[in-house]
Amino acid sequence: CPITDLAVKDNTLVIATQWRSFWTIDDLSMLRAFEKEILEQPLYILPPAETVRMGGGIGKPSLTGGANLKQDAVIQFWLKEVPKDDQAKIRIVDSQGRDAIVFLKKSKLERGEAALECKPGWNQISWNLRYPAAETFDGLILWGGGTGGPQAAPGEYKALFEFGELKAEAQFKITKDPRSSASDQDLVEQFNFLLGV
User: How many angstroms separate the first and last alpha carbons of the chain?
Assistant: First the structure.
């Protein structure tokens, strides 16, 4: 069908088709940053896009409706060779130097860790903005609650790459939901309270 309009909104390409619908390509970072020389480097990290900290959940989408884009912090990187399992680690740290999550290439993961799957070529990690969950114990009963970790507060974050002798970092920012009346400081105080609990 004919494409009747194209628009770029932030980092998204929006495509309108006559009488059909409209479509989006959600992240143009790779297209904008790609150069042939990248493919010769052992490790290259695309500059991460700003992540908006959204509240609430979307639940399961209906059979006739589309699903909203996940509001995760996504970091894309080029890897020429895959390091050994015990030499592949990506840490997401906040401005206080605390580990928010650690991506590891190993079979058994512990609290605060996530699986790191990488291959030669383009890869990505996706962090749901949650800090490690609380420790649990057998027989724990929670009525209407859970042990999930608090959502990251707005601010500056770093992704620290340690692939054997290869070390690199990428900085990214988390901003608050523009619809929220809470200030950044309100959300930082809420985060500190929840982390303390």
Answer: 55
| pTM score over 0.85 | no
Tens of pLDDT, residue by residue over 136-181, are 899 998 888 888 899 999 999 999 999 988 999 999 999 999 999 9
- What order of strands is seen across the sheet that includes strand 21-25? 3-9, 12-17, 21-25
Q: How many CB atoms lie within 10 A of CB 73?
A: 24
Q: What CA–CA distance (Å, rounded) separates 175 from 129?
A: 11
The length of the chain in residues reads: 197
**Rounded Cα distance, 21 and 117, in Å:** 35
CB 164 within 8 A of CB 99: no
